[in-house]
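Replying to the earlier thread about multi-chain prediction with a worked example.

Input:
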Amino acid sequence: MTHQAHAYHMVDPSPWPLTGAVAALLMTSGLAVWFHFHSTTLMALGTVLLLLTMYQWWRDIIREGTFQGHHTPPVQKGLRYGMILFITSEVFFFLGFFWAFYHASLAPTPELGGCWPPTGITTLDPFEVPLLNTAVLLASGVTVTWAHHSIMEGERKQAIHSLTLTILLGFYFTFLQGLEYYDAPFTIADGVYGSTFFVATGFHGLHVIIGSTFLAVCLLRQIRYHFTSEHHFGFEAAAWYWHFVDVVWLFLYISIYWWGS
Amino acid sequence: MAGRHLLRACTALRLVNQNVAVRPLQRTMGTLKGIPTDDEQATGLERRALQALKKGKDPYSMLRPMEYAGTKAEPHIVPGISTKRLVGCLCEEDNTAIVWFWLHEGDAQRCPSCGSHYKLVHSELPH
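Result:
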């Protein structure tokens, strides 16, 4: 049998990039159909296809790396570069919304009353639930670091406990933000204040949910003995993403909740 | 009828299990704290690459290649799995024109452009 003389992974042909592209097509055209013809069928079909694609693609990566041993040190290095570049692109995504916020708030227009917060907007008290949320996310950053050290030191029980705690803190944040959204005295339709507030915090909340899901998958894998004390890049990637989510919140809190109030 | 078969299978299984020694719920690894090491669990190409590195070998060329003087006394050592291998010589740093030539087993050959020496050394295909 011919074996390769290099350490890289020549991936087998896979249908998931195609199904992912089809899902993107169905979701976007489905969005247009929803707008014009009041039917959500196409969009829902696209979403289901997207979820199936993500599940099967990432399941295959776990099979290739953990079960088949294709993730040699050079391959792992490439995955690290990939995750860092992806998170960097997400940083730029949020940068745009911060730009919008500062554009609107540094020079408030006469329509807003020439002031920030705009006339008629009752802002949320930054020292109530938002401060609690800050503490929750910072604590989750501590617990995820605890989980990482537990894995590196071979401590299975501690790794599972600290990772579970991190996920619970993530859920608590999402729950508290949900309550805040429900009880907020302003909506997304309330001028540029509402727009910048809910789009920025809304996308952040979505990223918290994505990060929590990533960590939950890591918890499942840790319970099933996928990670070794030296090789656990899936977990490291989840932890990086979680720290990124935490940092974005800190910027949101300081800019929108505190300075902007 | 399917229910009767299922019941028979369950009772048979229970009888079999009673004769087997009870296994501890937590899998014991070499590391008693419960998380395996690469040495215990790495598999496939990753395992082969890591085990080779531990023995000081690099069959998958993961490390930076060794540097040689390229003189007659110290030629560039080129590992090869066959009787010949392509060599690309950058005669000077930052050269954009690569000098390509086949290096055959036997005596060291010289680059047709800069004259540095190359010697093909047979090595096994990693498997």
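Helices of chain A lie at 16-37, 41-67, 73-106, 129-152, 156-183, 191-223, 233-259.

Feel free to reuse this layout for your own posts.
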